[in-house]
Amino acid sequence: MTYNELLEQARQEVGPYCKACPVCNGKACKNQMPGPGAKGVGDTAIRNYEKWQEIRLQMDTIGKNQKADTTFNVFGKTFRYPLFAGPVGAVNLHYGKKYNDESYNNILVSACAEAGIAAMTGDGVNENVMQVATEAIKKANGIGIPTIKPWDMEKIKEKMKLADASGAFAVAMDIDASGLPFLQAENSGAGKKSVEELHRIAKSTYAPFIVKGIMAVRGALKAESAGADAIVVSNHGGRVLDQCPATAEVLEEIANAVKGKMKIFVDGGIRSGADVFKAIALGADGVIICRPFVTALYGGGEEGVKLYIEKIGQELADAMEMCGANSLKEITKEMIWRP
Ligand SMILES: Cc1cc2nc3c(=O)[nH]c(=O)nc-3n(C[C@H](O)[C@H](O)[C@H](O)COP(=O)(O)O)c2cc1C
Question: Closest ligand 1 atom, CA of 93?
């Protein structure tokens, strides 16, 4: 199967909102929610993609002729690439009936683990989603990251128990999900969390705790003082607040403030290995790609996911070799060009 065949197949299965575009740039689905689009006018996801494209690669091919080492070490685990598959909740609502959250996560978690990276799994109103996702992570020997929504504290405790029982090597919370309309409709205490509450949540798991949905230095500092082991610079792909800057626009400033204190991941419009390279040059330790994994899975199941990982991984290795970085640590700001 080629990537084009995968997209062709996905177009038969993934509708009606997603068009399985050659490049997932937020335009065709723009403000479609339900669907994979963004909130409000819908241009935050588009901006996420476009801002990575404004950054270019600075090649330098005078140097030792050797293969780049893309190995990524984090939280005591070694991965082939600095890449996680992003969490998606309610896949059948947003992408059509072929999969539900249970079947989707089952395939995603095992395919990613077999291909040498880790998948993050989403959370939902349906209790079964976290149950099945954490079972899939357990089967994959803990290679997966359950992502818990900011429910009320009691419910978070229950979900955390499931996450811990899975042996997951890390646990995340998409703190920005307080902007999702369905979570806003909950009247049980779901929503924003104070630093003190976040601290209690971070302490309630043995696993490294990742706070997903940080877009400003002040948020990063709060996550740090809450005891987070990592943050994800993310605007949830534009789905929780309209008119955010792109993640590529805020990453460097956030990284300058907290680099070395916590791991820094980033997502939003990252669509190639070259984009992964740019993110690392700007201070990220690793990246998350979300929507294109859905297309890969709807279009090619397990094979599609593995094919997509190889595509991104090879593009990253190519960018590293052409710019003179032999390992992820050698990627520097001098290797990118900005307007
Ligand atoms: C349909 C859909 C559902 C999502 N569900 C979740 C979720 O349950 N938990 C979460 O942390 N992020 C969720 N996200 C956000 C993604 O994980 C990611 O942060 C965002 O899409 C940006 O990455 P991308 O541009 O590569 O898609 C969802 C995104 C989409 C499009």
Answer: 1
Threshold 0.85, pTM exceeds? yes
- The label of the residue with tokens 């703190």 reads 175
Mean pLDDT, 10 residues at a time, over the chain (339 residues)? 97 94 97 94 97 98 97 98 97 93 96 98 91 97 98 96 98 97 87 98 98 98 98 98 98 98 98 98 98 98 98 98 98 97
| Spacing of C-alpha 281 from chain mean position | 18
What distance in angstroms lies between residue 88's CA and the mean position of ligand 1's atoms?
5
CA separation for the pair 270, 260 (Å, rounded): 23
Pocket of ligand 1, beta carbon within 6 A: 36, 48, 86-89, 94, 122-123, 147, 174, 212, 234, 236-237, 239, 267-270, 289-291
- How many angstroms is it from 288 CA to the middle of ligand 1? 10
Q: Which of 240, 246, 91 is nearest to 178 (CA)?
A: 240
